[in-house]
Design goal:
Distance between the termini: 25 Å
Largest sheet: 4 strands, antiparallel
Helix content: 25-40%
Radius of gyration: 17 Å
Strand content: 15-25%
Number of strands: 8
Shape: globular
Number of helices: 4
Order of helices and strands: EHEEHEEEHEEH
Number of domains: 2
Strand order of the largest sheet: 5-7-8-6
């Protein structure tokens, strides 16, 4: 997650586009997704991710030192890194492939589970999977934070689709 500096959103977006061009020129074959947060306490933050990779794939990324150098040149002057984590896809709770469908919007929720409550939460999410409608992708954090954390993504074509298809967490998960 990146948080653009106040008044620097245009510069951030331009720098991020230049950085993506660096990836293309470096032969990066990964697809990078990015969304600007519209609602909530992370409004205007930028979330970016790549999906569908095995853990070993991250050991063979495209020129990591050059990637970082270009990132420092083009992105960090206009934003601060506000979080970074590694997640695994949880198919037993999801409807979809684990790679989001391209969409102009995505509903993203982050769930932090109290220590010791993970088995209850995970059981409730597995039980609720059959009631899911539409693409709903769950991920479990495996590195990057102290508490058990989960992220749900639901790609949507527009804000109206998010509002019309509310899908709260099951009561048993709360």
């Amino acid at each position: 997650m990146l948080r653009p500096h106040d008044g620097k959103t245009v510069e951030f977006e331009s720098g991020y586009i230049r950085h993506l061009e660096w990836h293309r020129l470096a032969g990066d074959k990964w697809t990078w997704y990015g969304w600007t947060v519209t609602y909530g306490d992370r409004q205007r933050w930028f979330v970016y991710a790549t999906f569908g990779h095995a853990a070993a794939d991250f050991d063979n990324q495209v020129a990591p030192a050059d990637d970082e150098r270009d990132n420092v040149l083009n992105v960090t002057p206009h934003a601060e890194f506000a979080g970074n984590a590694l997640y695994e896809y949880v198919p037993a709770w999801s409807r979809g492939t684990g790679v989001p469908s391209p969409a102009s919007r995505v509903e993203m929720i982050t769930v932090d589970v109290e220590a010791g409550s993970t088995p209850t939460f995970e059981s409730a999410m597995a039980a609720a999977q059959t009631s899911l409608t539409g693409e709903t992708l769950w991920y479990r954090m495996i590195a990057g934070g102290a508490s058990p954390r989960y992220v749900r993504l639901r790609p949507r074509p527009a804000v109206a689709a998010i509002a019309e298809s509310r899908s709260p967490l099951p009561d048993a998960a709360l």
